Amino acid sequence: MSTTTTRRAPVGTTAKTGEVCPESGVWKVVGTPTTTAPIAKGNRMPPYNNKAVTWQLIQHA
Q1: What does the pLDDT profile of the chain (61 residues) look like in tens digits?
Q2: Phi then psi for 33, rounded to 5 degrees?
Q3: CA–CA separation, 55 vs 12, rounded Å?
Q4: d(CA 2, CA 49)
Q5: 20 contacts 44 by C-beta, under 8 angstroms
Q6: Sign of CA dihedral 31, 37, 38, 40
Q7: Fewer CB atoms inside 10 Å of the end CB: C or N, the chain?
């Protein structure tokens, strides 16, 4: 049994389009119009409506 604890980015963490996703989960675009998307840790944060946006983690995977 492992004694190491994996630290997860807390709900509320933000990341911008083009940055590496710090945590797998459901992410929501900050502002309007908004949307949610499942994004996996290590992927690049996508644009929304062809624009750079800020994403906020709302639920862990």
Answers
A1: 555 667 899 999 999 999 999 999 999 999 999 999 999 999 999 999 999 999 999 999 9
A2: -65, 160
A3: 9
A4: 43
A5: yes
A6: negative
A7: N
